[in-house]
Amino acid sequence: MSMVSYASGARYLSLIGGTCLSFYDWYCDLPPASPMTWGEQTDVPESADWYNSSYIIAWGSNVPQTRTPDAHFFTEVRYISRASISPTMCAAIPTCRCW
């Protein structure tokens, strides 16, 4: 988020009598939903945890292109009999078992 976007939103909020409690307030449902879903605030799980999964779906994610340092974890999951599936046609398909 740009500083201009944040500043304009904070200004509008102050004009209507609201208060901005934190920077995360501009992410809508992230502050309440993330801790309820994952147990921690905006925590991204470690990619090595993919080894602990028995079923991985790469939904809307192109792991080899967007997470280059972690792509080898996604590829190596195939060799330990885990199911990795990509429902969309993207560059992640060679690293998945099913499409």
Work out the helicity level: 25-40%
For the sheet with most strands, the description reads: 2 strands, parallel
Known CATH architecture of the largest domain: 3-Layer(aba) Sandwich
Q: Find the structural class using helix and strand composition.
A: mainly alpha
Radius of gyration from CA coordinates: 19 Å
> Low-confidence runs (pLDDT<50, min 5 residues)?
none
Give the neighbour order of strands across the main sheet.
Answer: 1-2
The fraction of residues in strands falls at 5-15%
The tally of strands reads: 2
Shape: elongated
Which CATH C-level class of the largest domain is it?
Alpha Beta
User: What is the arithmetic mean of pLDDT?
Assistant: 68
Walk me through this protein's architecture.
By secondary structure, this protein is mainly alpha-helical. It has two domains: 3-38, no CATH class; 47-95, Dimethylsulfoxide Reductase, domain 2. It contains four helices and two strands; from the N terminus they run ααβααβ. It has helices spanning 3-15, 30-38, 63-66, 71-76; strands spanning 55-57, 83-85. A two-stranded parallel ribbon has the order 1-2. The radius of gyration is 19 Å and the shape is elongated. GO terms for molecular function: oxidoreductase activity.
